Amino acid sequence: MFAQKIRLWIVIALSLSVFFAVIIWKASSARLAEDLPSKPVLELGQQTVDLGDLRQGGRIDVAFHLVNRGGQRLQIHEVDRNCGYGEPIRQSMSLAANTGRDWVVSFEPAFETGQIVQTTSFVTSDPEMPRFDLRVIATVQPSLVQEKSQAVQQDVVPVPEDDLPTTPQ
Length: 169
Fold this sequence. Notes:
The chain has 169 residues and is an alpha+beta fold. It contains two helices and eight strands; from the N terminus they run H-E-E-E-E-E-E-E-E-H.
């Protein structure tokens, strides 16, 4: 009889422990859901990346980290690029609530030299940040092949027209 009472108290204690654990878990889950805004909220890491000095040619992929801190799905769409140095790998992105991903932009300095700023503009479903820009900056130096070509051209000395031999007509 005494052993049955002990078992009954153990069952009651375990049941109450499980019951209160479930209540505490649900309360903390509800609190987390309440902490998220009821709209998408875009959080950007860095918006500009300076690659420093680069040689012409080749391709560099630059990753920008985007996070949705809101409670609804965030839509992001590329709308404009100010120069043709590469294509983003993704044209649009959708982020679930409280998640993040990288947006990768390719930078390909093929023809121009000097400082190049590539700006990509986006629209979002975040009512507080409906538009934003990502920038990649680099100072592009001529490729080694182009430098050698320019050096050869500089070694050629033009001959004045007076010194050219004339052909009889």
